[in-house]
Amino acid sequence: MVIKVAINGYGTIGKRVADAVAAQTDMEIIGVTKTRPSFGCDLAVRKGYPLYCTYDSEEKISAFADAGYVCHGGLSGLLELADVVIDCSPGKVGADNKKKYQQAGVKWIFQGGEKHAMTGMSYTSCANHHENMNAEGTRVVSCNTTGLSRTLMPLYNHCGSLKVECTMIRRAADPGDSKKGPINAIKPVLKVPSHHGPDVKTVKPEIEINSMAVAVPTTIMHVHVIIATLPEGHGLTTESILSMWRDTPRVVLMNGAETGITTTAEVMEFARDIGRTWGDLHEIFVWDDGVKLEGNTLYYFQAIHQESDVIPENVDAIRALMGAEQDWRKSVAKTDAGIAASLGL
């Protein structure tokens, strides 16, 4: 069975998800939506993705033709063809879109900009793939929550319990976003805890976690400063934790002193060097010389590429909702192999 996938919102996340889906042998892109004619339409046309309008208004649909694009219709027409729709539209419109998807009888996936309360389900492959099997819909959690899940879940699975305090050093905006700041300031998130820790509990409620956050004037990555308290008798060492993470999908470890990769700028250069489209890094980057276990307390840093770590998670979430693969590790392996093959890597 080839799963027919629609992408509602072909922007920063949508264009990446579309390529990841198109790289899978068990999925196909049947259409992507744009709200209006723009440069993003050219990319969709070059990729061979059928172009649809986010709205069903004939006036808005005809605007695409006036701009020289072939538009195959509005969102409702696209949904008639789809098995599942991945919603990559701007935040705060999810509730209205969810009603449309339910009326059309298609499964749906939202992104981390929407609230868990709206979707009722959230997803990361390593934490709760099985719980999302055959569900009506779900929400792929944010880039930061995804990153926390990737390194915390192996620890939790080994220890059976975990207490975590983390500080999120957040980029101020995506590279292509000129409307946000701060430009010359460090801006603390004064709501404590920040939403990141509680969001982890939407996919793994058993992890005790609190978080704080600050926004800084950079656009390329987030950095997490994590302190995890392990239970007595955990039986781990710094080296065994590093080995555990090396065996964890979508986590990459490097030694800053040996490689010279000591900043987020250099991490992004590494992603470009290995041939990733847009210089994306789907993996969570951990500096192994910044990891230290003292007694029951684990200290480490990790870097998150906010534009891309959730992309393969969307593909795995499709398989969960469609009941196509019960084993999350098998889905992850298939997703990552498809992406790598599409890039000739």
Radius of gyration: 20 Å
Tell me the CATH topology of the largest domain.
Answer: Rossmann fold
Distance between the termini: 26 Å
- Helix proportion: 25-40%
**Number of alpha- plus pi-helical segments:** 14
Globally, the shape reads: globular
Major sheet characteristics: 8 strands, mixed
- The CATH architecture classification of the largest domain is 3-Layer(aba) Sandwich
Percent range for β-strand residues = 15-25%
Task: Kindly describe this structure.
This protein is an alpha/beta fold and 345 residues long. The chain contains 14 helices and 14 strands. It has helices spanning 12-22, 39-47, 58-66, 75-79, 94-104, 116-119, 125-128, 143-159, 196-200, 238-246, 256-259, 264-273, 311-321, 328-342; strands at residues 3-8, 27-34, 51-53, 84-87, 107-110, 137-139, 163-171, 187-188, 208-216, 222-229, 251-254, 284-287, 292-294, 297-304. The strands form two sheets. Strands 7, 8, 9, 10, 11, 12, 13 and 14 form an eight-stranded mixed sheet that branches. Helix 5 links the parallel strand 4 (84-87) and strand 5.
Layout of secondary structure:
Blueprint lengths: L2 E6 L3 H11 L4 E8 L4 H9 L3 E3 L4 H9 L8 H5 L4 E4 L6 H11 L2 E4 L5 H4 L5 H4 L8 E3 L3 H17 L3 E9 L15 E2 L7 H5 L7 E9 L5 E8 L8 H9 L4 E4 L1 H4 L4 H10 L10 E4 L4 E3 L2 E8 L6 H11 L6 H15 L3
Parallel strand pairs: 1-2, 1-4, 2-3, 4-5, 5-6, 7-9, 11-12
Antiparallel strand pairs: 7-10, 8-9, 10-14, 12-14, 13-14
Brief sketch in words of this structure:
This protein is α/β, with parallel strands linked by helices and 345 residues long. It is built from 14 helices and 14 strands.
